[in-house]
């Protein structure tokens, strides 16, 4: 079912500092910061040869990563995103296998303007998993 | 400097259960468990189209992931591994930029029989970073 690893998301307490580390220290190509108000984050994309790292910083009052950063003050790996061809088929298969979908179980439009779902970390070895339809 | 994302490592408290979730629930291709006594882990490789997920389980008495699993009893994302062409040149550039190398600063032979280094999480937004020469 899952295809490519679309991205690894890392929540960071200082977006400019994190982007500078990826650009200057690790020598990667990084984008300008991009506000995603619908998702409550500002994102810097780190372009690798085969996938992306997304550096996430809270945007607005109810950012979904604010709680994570309160607990992990240095930042940390927040989620992985796997690509699927059909998110409804994927969801139905996951539910049949006993996995829990976060929220109301309906896909939302994610940061790449494509349908996404998040899966319960307790069902995936403590790892928050995003699925994105591509 | 950094090239491909070689893998994302996820430490898991139950290797068979985690492998089954990736195989049956997420429909991915997973390897048989592979003991890596020199690295203190047993690994299941999850083969994605563009990279790998490595499910890590402690092996032996001084496993480097035992402390992580004691703190994160459900498991969790443990590190990311980026590929570099020349690990000595990469290390020297990192040190010059002020990043800290874990251990004695000399590359070790990693799980793929290639030279690796680990970088201090505090210098990389709370994320443990492995570099592997390819």
Automatic annotation (TrEMBL), chains A, B:
Q: Which UniProt keywords apply?
A: Isomerase, Metal-binding
**Which CDD domains did the record assign?**
MMCE
Which GO-annotated molecular functions does the record name? Answer: methylmalonyl-CoA epimerase activity
The protein's matches in Pfam families, at most eight in alphabetical order, are given as: Glyoxalase_4 (PF13669)
Source organism, top-level taxon: Bacteria
Domain VOC, which positions?
A: 4-134
Give its E.C. classification number.
5.1.99.1
InterPro entries to which the protein is assigned, alphabetical = Glyas_Bleomycin-R_OHBP_Dase, MeMalonyl-CoA_epimerase, MMCE/EMCE_epimerase, VOC_core
> What family name appears in the similarity comment?
Belongs to the methylmalonyl-CoA epimerase family.
Q: Which NCBIfam families match?
A: metmalonyl_epim
Protein name as annotated: Methylmalonyl-CoA epimerase
- Source gene? mce
